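Help! Submission page says 'invalid entity' but I think these are all valid:
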Amino acid sequence: MPTLAPDAVLTASGFVRDHVVVVDNGLVTSVTKFPPGPIDVPLPGRVLIPGLVNAHSHAFQRALRGQLPDGSATDFWHWRDRMYALVGGLDPNAIEAISALAFTEMAESGITHVGEFHYVHHQPDGSPYADPDELAHRVIAAARRAGIRITLLRVAYERNGDQPLHPVQRRFIDTGGAPVLAATERLRRVYGTDEDVIIGLAPHSVRAVPPSSLRTLASFDGVIHTHVSEQPAENAFCHAQSQCSPTQLLADCGLVHDRFTAVHLTWPEPGDVDCLVAARARVCVCPSTELDLADGFLPVDARRRLPLCLGSDSHATIDLFAEARTLEGHGRAQSGQRGILGQPQAGGDGRLAWRALVAASAEGARALGLPRELGVTPGDPADLVAIDLTDLSALGVPPLEAIIGQASPRWVDSVWVGGTRIVAEGRHVRREAVVEAALQAFATSYRTAAG
Amino acid sequence: MPTLAPDAVLTASGFVRDHVVVVDNGLVTSVTKFPPGPIDVPLPGRVLIPGLVNAHSHAFQRALRGQLPDGSATDFWHWRDRMYALVGGLDPNAIEAISALAFTEMAESGITHVGEFHYVHHQPDGSPYADPDELAHRVIAAARRAGIRITLLRVAYERNGDQPLHPVQRRFIDTGGAPVLAATERLRRVYGTDEDVIIGLAPHSVRAVPPSSLRTLASFDGVIHTHVSEQPAENAFCHAQSQCSPTQLLADCGLVHDRFTAVHLTWPEPGDVDCLVAARARVCVCPSTELDLADGFLPVDARRRLPLCLGSDSHATIDLFAEARTLEGHGRAQSGQRGILGQPQAGGDGRLAWRALVAASAEGARALGLPRELGVTPGDPADLVAIDLTDLSALGVPPLEAIIGQASPRWVDSVWVGGTRIVAEGRHVRREAVVEAALQAFATSYRTAAG
């Protein structure tokens, strides 16, 4: 029954000092006023917050980081070609090793739960692996190696919009919604009710999945994520096909509800935000990727009115503090006004930094099917992050504002998932083994593929 | 004659490995292939780059960080009122102590030269201090305490646009250009040709300085900085007064040349970028402040065509790595295209990350009157930064892309200015004393003022 003693603890009503957090059997059992009893884990200079949640990830894309240094991919679509060149060369071992690197980096940056939008399913020629869920198992194994929770969002992908199939896309394809639902059922049977692994569904986009299959997939009873209006070309395609916006098409097919997360929504059309608000759906914003891929900025109206969660997506960088601070900042620069983030959520203290931290944690947890409120709370899983606030840049700054305004992954001192400490003094307990496997994967599949 | 041995050194043509850097008498004397001789400073896992240059700072505003947590300042002008409330309560000791904190934080984040846009000159009632340059001396003393170079940009400020004077503005006001030029002459006499201290001039903005004074100030022969088109209201004011844009007015008054830096330029009008390009002037972009204050985004055309340098301005955060990475990213999100930053500069390797690093160092140095190229070069002052690239997020990433894509101030291991080591293992050598004085300043002038 370890007792943690940080300088301050983030509770549902804000930071409290002189409290300890007691953890037992994977849960927070109490948050109590500093006792005279023994302290197992003193955390001087650190504050304790709930684990961050990364609601949108394509883990294998970590291998692309820094590999297009000449800026030669001129837009989103050209970048996608380069990413496909990577996908073509990855075998199951490489996918597992690179995913483990991404997830371990996430752990070291304070992330305790990832939503993996998993779309590489088959062999390079499109035929299934001996176990048709081989790559899903590999990605889940990678998350277990990193010690973080995973919601595996099993992707449905059928076509390349109205263009001929790219050869690499054969690795993504299932025909019709039924085989995808069958895959989610198989995965649920394997992983059962384990809270470390949740199975969700991800119709990739309206480009990749026709309306008939979207309707089939709507019967899924878990969390559903879809890329929505990431690029203007996607909206144009949807109008040509269905005479409506992507959001509207998804709603018409029965997918837009309170278990639905629209990823990106960079280019919503009139009525789309209303539609999502009415359904109590949310948006997953991925600011660093949306800058890197020249997508654009989530419009101000969506920032004000919709629940927001965050993803590091392509992993150009993995830093949910930085992502969170842009939610308000990009809205300000678009509008010329301050105070853009929506209304205070219940239980919080109403400050902008609180709302940004909700996006980086509690709202992400809801999006991934493991809802909780922001705050270290007795009864919740002990997914905890100790942040070192001794940086000079935090001097004189309230902890909440220091975290959202100043923190970077290097401020993460320790991380626990379900009470198990996976990061200590900024280093993952299995860092060396993960690095060794990743370097091997880079040296083989990747370097040849990227040429 | 210390010899530094990092993993790699950034030279004018890119990173080289297995080299040592020899420093003598404040200068880099050689960058040579790894010798068998003794190493004074081994820097394993670190790479060595030239010091970063922060071209736009209002150091005392560091005290505002995290102090408007409710977002209650609804726009730029309301924020300015809150900043004025702070200014009203600061005495010379507080200004020096808070400036020293800001400059020390800069040093710990890899900055070796700051451009201080210094506009608080007088006592709260507007009367001069016994030494009329008292506060300039205090700010320069703060930079010396932090051990970094400073270009003191002595501000000219006469009026509040066409509005009545705000009482706090009495601390800023000189009437006419001549007293300001006289102040620069006095300061130059005191600081001589010392390369630690350069005296520049900063007509605050076309709002604050009338055309007649701008013409007088144009005779200054050093570097000149001006806030230009930060907010649409400034353009509207200038049209009402002078029937042209702020940039055009400054050019008409003789201020736009290759020693001129336009700070912000968030809202250029047609022809303004052409005007600055023709004059070989540059723009100082301050992305984090421009988000925080709801200014907007520097337009893509300016990003492509003008030399860019960077400033942390209001010090909402001090992280030139983060500022540099947004130069390309915000351009991409505005345009839907990648590869936004302008043409490769001579001597570099053409990569986007190189151009971003030029903005964070060499172009800033030009803006502050101490020109040099990017790269650790024999004969240059030994202003050097050792960056720790052992972070998991840098694995498999080329050093240049890791620095621009991933680095944060916490990656800064060591900093030398003119050969003197001011930061070791991430800590400034005088951190404790600076912190003590800053806390005292916060406790007195500031807390009462911000109330």
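Support: the input was valid. A stray whitespace character was the problem, and the output above is from the cleaned input. The mean pLDDT of chain B is 94.
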